[in-house]
Amino acid sequence: MKYKLLGKSGLKVSELALGAMTFGTEMGFGVDKDESRKVYEAFREEGGNFIDTANVYNGGTSETFLGEFMQADRERIVLATKFTGAMRGRDVNASGNSRKNMMDSVHASLKRLKTDYIDLYWAHFWDPTTPTEELMRGLDDLVSQGKVLYVGISDTPAWVVSRANTIAELKGWSQFVGLQIRYSLIDRSVERELLPMSRALDIAVTPWGIVGSGILSGKYNKDAATEGRAKMRGSIDKRALKITAEVMAIAEDIGAKATQVAIAWLRNGPANIIPLLGARTVEQLEENLGCLTVSLDEDQMQRLDTVSAISPGFPHDMLSAGNEARAKRIDNHRDWSMGASL
Fold first, then answer.
1. Residue 252 DSSP symbol
2. Residue 178 parent element (H or E)
């Protein structure tokens, strides 16, 4: 395992992060403590130090498990958790990004995690009812208090993140150094605004849903019955099957798993990307970690780019012709557009 700087910070994190959403069974798709511990220990044995959870994952059980698992080497872990989601039923102040919910949430998370500080604290998603200034000042207060070391933002429009970091910069407050978003060959929509923003502002990206809810594993392409059920649920379409077929073809050519190819493509993406691995078993984790040994050449990357291409949308499509003409005459090192990747 190699390591990366987390955005514009000096924090070093493993090139893959472990997502702990599956730690616990309350949400109906996770695993018990023993299996969770095995996954955690397997990730640590491979040199992984970046672990991501949230207060709402399995009603707090994920944080509780991690609090136990980390006791022997807490200082070696870069621990990330989130707030925003509701933890007290129908209490109107128990969700969102208000200072009240932020402070209540961080104290509860610290207790469950059995630690004095959180390395990276995420706002879990955009809360339009809370002023940006309130969010950023509250997070900066947590940093000043030593309860949080760095802050990040998840599942939020690019203009909101940009405005928040600009306000923080002008006020001298802590800025977002991490961005958590959905990103895979199946869904490349973040390349329109969020990824260019992350490059321009030097924000690290920790994508989730990196194998397209399991579609990119190839299981729907292989099993007609499973494919039929998935189509009935509306979770898969012809485009997704076509993309997966190309992933599987490349995987066969290089002797790798389809999921490993999908993650390897992501790691070569147009941003500072640290994929978030989700695994219910050690076997799943080891398969995903195998992406580190997969190297895609220029032709293979182009094949995947082409089959999964999306329209850049307005105004990028309107401006692209002029940009291409200028690019032939000017070497612009400040060009943060996705360009040919779309």
1. H
2. strand 176-180
Just list the catalytic residues: 57
pTM over 0.85? The answer is yes
The backbone region for 28, taken as left when phi is positive above 0, alpha when psi lies in -120 to 50, beta otherwise, is: left
Which among 113, 111, 100 is positioned nearest to 63, based on CA atoms? Answer: 113
Write the DSSP symbol of residue 182: B
Strand residue runs (E) in 84-175 = 118-123, 148-154
Q: In 226-339, where do the E strands start and end?
A: 276-278
CATH number of 3-180: 3.20.20.100
57 neighbors 84 (Cβ within 8 angstroms): no
What are 93-122's pLDDT values in tens digits? 999 999 999 999 999 999 999 999 999 999
Residues 31 and 65 sit within 8 Å (Cβ to Cβ): no
Helix (H, G, I), strand (E, B) or coil at 119: strand
Q: Distance (Å, rounded) from C-alpha 66 to C-alpha 131? A: 32
Strand partners, 51: 18, 79
Strand 176-180's sheet: what is its strand order?
Answer: 204-205, 176-180, 148-154, 118-123, 78-83, 50-52, 17-19, 276-278
Q: How far apart are the C-alpha atoms of 221 and 241, rounded to whole Å?
A: 6
Give 14's strand partners: 3
Note the residue count of the chain. Answer: 342
**Phi and psi at residue 302, to the nearest 5°:** -65, -40
Q: Where are the beta strands (DSSP E) in 210-297?
A: 276-278
Among 144, 164, 145, 146, smallest CA distance to 154 is for 164
Q: How many CB atoms lie within 10 A of CB 101?
A: 24
Local confidence band at 340 (pLDDT 50, 70, 90 cut-offs): very low
Domain limits of the chain?
3-180
Q: CA-CA distance, 321 to 323, in Å (whole number)? A: 5
Residue given tokens 């329109």 in the structure block: 192
